[in-house]
Amino acid sequence: MIESLLLRIPLPTLYAAEDEQENWAIVDGIQRLTTITRFISPELIEEAPLRLSGLEYLGNSFNGMVYDDLPARLKRRLRETELVVHLIRHGTPQEVKFNIFARINTGGLPLSSQELRHALIPGQARNFLRDLAASDAFKVATTYSIRDERMADREMVLRFVAFRLNEPEEFRAYDFDRFLGDAMRQINTLSRRKLDRLGEEFVAVMNTAAEIFGDDAFRKRYREQDARMPINKALFETVSVAIASLADSERRRCVDRATEIRARMMVLMQDRVFESSISQGTGDIAKVRYRFMAMERVFQEVARG
Known about the structure:
Blueprint: H1 2-6, E1 14-18, E2 24-28, H2 30-40, H3 59-62, H4 72-80, E3 85-88, H5 94-104, H6 113-120, H7 124-133, H8 136-141, H9 152-165, H10 176-189, H11 192-213, H12 233-244, H13 248-256, H14 258-268, H15 272-277, H16 285-304
Parallel strand pairs: 1-3
Antiparallel strand pairs: 1-2
Helix pairs in contact: 5-6, 7-9, 7-10, 9-10, 9-12, 11-12, 11-13, 12-16, 13-14, 13-16, 14-16
């Protein structure tokens, strides 16, 4: 009786998005599907089969079993179990898709914005961001402090790329998440040569930032004696793009005059408009343009002074 009731308990609804080839990208439910596959057909994903354990009611009968050990009637019922999938069709505006999945993404641990972008925007951008986030240069420059569990590291890389592909002074996005999503789609259109060049530039920028700021890269600092603060996303994109805009000789001059760069940064932090631009409402058009302009001035004055 218990066995019969348990098999009738419905699985939570799955959510997917359809691309232009009518492929489905699962946005909510990938762990459930992976678990089911690993139990019933692990060879499809080249994983070791799952073995039942810790069963509260059926433990005496089924603990230790894999799928092939189950009675034929149970295997049949498992294979015949229906899964409910809510599908967002291809052609739905991207911002609508993002909004829909952000609203339904309330069960368990909610997906981060970058996890949603990763699920909704397939293509070469996924691997490109992953590889740069895993690079030694990025990890060293950020002192290994950006975790990869929720793709926070990939979002940091994406912020740099977004403002290298789109001039900060021309930033007009009213929705910063949409701006980053559009940047991922831009990455998907780049040639292999352009991707390689962009990746090499990113690594060079991270190395330069580490040389100039040491463990303080991309962190707010108001006074020399202050304790070290967490990495600031807005500072990361602003500093890294400012460095990327310099010629190689100018970058080397900034490294040679690192003490002056750090001192000017502390002066800049006393500018209330700039401090606000990296602290509150950082996606505001005026704040984005101001912080990039101010940071570019700091590096260019030192590099060309």
